[in-house]
Amino acid sequence: MCGIVGYIGNQDAYPILIKGLHRLEYRGYDSAGVALIDGDQLNIYKAKGKVSDLEESCTSKNIAGTIGIAHTRWATHGEPNHINAHPHYSQSADLALIHNGIIENYAVLKEGLKQKGYTFQSQTDTEVLVQLIEYVKTSNKTDISTAVQLALKQVVGAYAIAVVEKSNPDLIIAARKSSPLVVGIGENEYFIASDASPIIEYTNKVIYLEDEEIAIIRRQEPPKIVNLNNVPKTLQITQLEMSLSELEKGGYPHFMLKEIFEQTRTLRDCMRGRINIDNNHVALSGIIDNKDKFLNARRILILACGTSWHAGLIGEYLFEEFCRIPVEVEYSSEFRYRKPVIYPDDVVIAISQSGETADTLAAIELAKNAGAFVYGICNVVGSSIPRHTHSGSYTHVGPEIGVASTKAFTAQTLVLIMMALNIGKEKKTIPQKQFEKILLELDKIPDKIEMILEQNSKIEDLSKIFTYAHNFIYMGRGYSFPIALEGALKLKEISYIHAEGYPAAEMKHGPIALIDNEMPVVVIATNGHTYDKTISNIQEIKARKGRILAIVNKYDDKVKNMADYVIEIPDTEECLGPLLSIIPLQLLSYHIAVKKGRNVDMPRNLAKSVTVE
Ligand code: M6R
Q: Which of 319, 449, 458, 471 has its CA 20 to 30 A from that of 243?
């Protein structure tokens, strides 16, 4: 999704803004732009394509100025082109504005402004907003910060904005509603950004803006935060824990590969302080602090999108098996627009890597308004979801930059496993022996992941065989069904090969019609109580000449004899299987996408943080 960067201080703004835009590239975008104030000039430069295209187009331009704003745009209103790229000038070219989000009532506002003589260059909702601010400013004869407040009161929708004014070169105004915005506090310099990644190399002190708050950032003065009614708010400065090295590729060709290989460490980090093998103990502070809510839950509702939704599906199997609590897993986008039945004694678990997914945030509000207790599982510390939920657990995997979620998925799954064990133990719904066995095995998971990662070059070789394919089917049963869905999503989003995941037994209800000798079928056929049933499903595929790539456990002999290709992974407890079986599938997708020359870290049309619905 779109990215915002802003700077005001004593340094040249342009290099800071460009570097910041590069740091935000992982979010996904299709054009970029920058606005700089130099003396009495307000210069805007824009380019379709990458930030490097913008840099190239700026080589012979005046890039001086110690104040500026910059943007990467992910098209919503109007195609991705130079004209629709941000920043946008106001009619008089005295204001420049960048915007993330969607102004839902832009058409009505635009019509009103047209009648007042305003003309528009772009198809964007953003240009409407900057014109509206200028109109409010001139018609009310007010200053820019009051004009922003008054204009935003007329806006329906989501926004994170930054505005600069030619005649006011010591001021940036920023505001947010339902779209994240962070203000960085340096030494006599200030930064704004959609997330902390462009800021971290300059300062670790930040202020997270809340909805309908406006930051008035003047040179050499502490920022002032007010709401839309101009009521000031006490500054709440947060210390960032992220380090710059965590944002770099560390010698890997892509962030995705780095993040796949990090999983041995990230899962250890995620378990740290939460599991004690010697004492047979699992405790998540969010569960302990809200024990009664979980013990008395009538139902668990899991809300998420994409990969996080797949982790939620594993959660369903876990909570039902170990806690005997009924579970429903919902796409946030569907849930929020249904008329869902929500009970006050429901526990809602919202899962999100970014903590900013617009649909999940809206679904959380719905659940809270119905009186449910909402627990967040998030990765990005201080993001919107942890701030809007009653309690929760962080996954602690560090920044995930690759658009395809990998280490966040395994950590989300691990948090759900620890939650189910913690609640199951408290409820006494999990036999002590089984609890201890799983705990012991959990401790071995990072080493077992390491063993799978050692097969990277074998998986890379295997990937060559499959680059021809236009379609893929993934299948699994039980805990492996969500892995079939996740494996298929990983492949399609980065290689652009069509792939679908199915519960293996569903094949004969329709999808089996697709099988022929060109169709690769990836089967997760690891040990478990449906192993024999999966074998029957494999036979059905073989009988129709499908080409089987099976994920099997070491020492498996039955599937190996039937499959065309196999990848062996270590054995583990059935409920922990997803933590291992997803690793070869992540690697397979990665290598196929690389072989096909795809932009693995920033696949087309996708955004890392989906802040619009
Ligand atoms: O940040 P979130 O976990 O809320 O994001 C949800 C989805 O947009 C995300 O998982 C998406 O499906 C990924 N690209 C999958 O790799």
A: 449
Shared domain for 219 and 315, answered yes or no, is no
- The last residue of one of the domains, among 416, 443, 470, is 443
CA of 199 to the centre of ligand 1 (A): 23
For ligand 1, the distance from its centroid to the CA atom of residue 550, given in whole angstroms, is 26
Taking CA atoms only, the protein residue closest to ligand 1 atom 12 is 306
pLDDT band for 249, please (50, 70, 90 cuts): confident
| Confidence category of residue 7, pLDDT binned at 50, 70, 90 | very high
Q: What's the domain range around 161?
A: 3-246
Atom of ligand 1 nearest to the CA of 305: 6
CA gap 364, 328 in Å, rounded:
15
Number of domains in the chain: 3
Predicted confidence (pLDDT) at residue 245 exceeds the cutoff of 70:
no
* Domain assignment of residue 538, yes or no: yes
Q: In which order are the strands placed within the sheet that holds 565-569?
A: 498-503, 471-476, 520-524, 547-553, 565-569
- 2 part of the active site: yes
Q: Ligand 1: distance of its center to the CA of 589 in Å?
A: 16
The question of whether 608 is a catalytic residue gets the answer: yes
Residue of 166, 425, 490, 608 marked active site = 608
Q: Do 156 and 287 fall within a single domain?
A: no
The structure tokens listed for 266 are 């990230």
Q: Is residue 610 part of a domain?
A: no
Does residue 448 belong to any structural domain of this protein? no
Catalytic residue among 2, 58, 270, 378: 2
Same domain, 219 and 336: no
Distance (angstroms) between ligand 1 centre and the Cα of 381 equals 16
Residue 498's alpha-carbon distances to 260, 488, 490, 520, 562, in angstroms, are 22, 8, 11, 11, 25
Residues with CB under 6 A from ligand 1: 305-308, 352-354, 357, 360, 403-405, 489, 493, 606, 609-610
List, for residues 352-383, the tens digit of each pLDDT value. Answer: 999 999 999 999 999 999 999 999 999 987 78
| Residue 314 belongs to some domain of the structure | yes
Assigned token pair, 110: 């635009």
Q: Based on the domain organization, do 381 and 489 belong to the same domain?
A: no
Cα gap 105→69, rounded to integer Å: 25
